[in-house]
Design goal:
Layout lengths: L1 E3 L10 E5 L4 H12 L3 E6 L12 E4 L5 H8 L4 E4 L13 H15 L4 E5 L13 H27 L4 E7 L1 E3 L6 E5 L9 E3 H11 L11 E3 L1
């Protein structure tokens, strides 16, 4: 399926919280959301990393801290999770699942239901569809622990009772967006692919007020 994003969509009163806002994909989510007229809140641990991000409300705190999350979530229409974690070939990763558990509690407490979360190709039933290099070399040597936590993160989301969409991008690049992409749930015959962070950000923002992929986990790729 090919989906065309709409850069002219306006949502002047929509309030969104972005987690992972200072990461490379999160920054694009924030900038595109502002361009669409969204009111953006970002929860960040280090305000210095967000010093160049103008026009947003900053809440300082750890994404695993429910109190900080409740402060950031209150009054929002939706939450976008662009949380990421570095490759960790030797140590267990828990950040993504721990933060998501705290987020679900905070969202329920503040009566915010819409969650759009970015995980990645290789999570859940998309495992084994990254192509030879990704599946046989990169994944087992560098990303095995990260994706074990992404799987836990996805399970928390699926069991949350929230109005969720999980977005699984293929291998990310920093190229200019194409404005169109493939959304896949049937991965038979799909073995690897890439997509720009810009197009991922556009797709994620499209889901904020759409039910098209509600309670589903599309893999997106060029």
């Amino acid at each position: 399926m090919t989906q065309s994003t709409n850069p002219n969509l306006q949502a002047p009163h929509t309030k969104v919280l972005v987690l992972g806002a200072t990461g490379p994909t999160g920054r694009l989510v924030v900038s595109q959301a502002l361009a669409l007229g969204y009111e953006v809140t970002a929860l960040v641990r280090s305000p210095e990393k967000a010093a160049d991000m103008n026009g947003i409300r900053l809440v300082i705190g750890d994404a695993r801290d429910e109190k900080s999350l409740r402060q950031a979530v209150t009054g929002q229409d939706a939450v976008i999770s662009a949380l990421g974690t570095p490759a960790s070939p030797f140590k267990q990763v828990t950040l993504l699942s721990a933060a998501t558990r705290a987020l679900v509690k905070a969202m329920k407490a503040e009566h915010v239901s819409r969650l759009v979360a970015i995980t990645g190709m290789g999570a859940g039933d998309s495992a084994g569809h990254g192509g030879f290099l990704f599946d046989r070399v990169i994944f087992p040597l560098l990303l095995r622990n990260v994706y074990a936590d992404k799987n836990r993160q996805e399970a928390v989301i699926r069991e949350s009772g929230l109005d969720w969409t999980i977005v699984r991008p293929s291998i990310l690049n920093n190229k200019a967006g194409r404005g169109t992409l493939r959304t896949l749930t049937d991965l038979s015959g799909f073995h690897g692919g890439s997509i720009s962070r810009e197009d991922v950000a556009k797709f994620v923002l499209d889901q904020v007020e759409s039910d098209a992929w509600r309670h589903r986990s599309p893999l997106i790729s060029w």
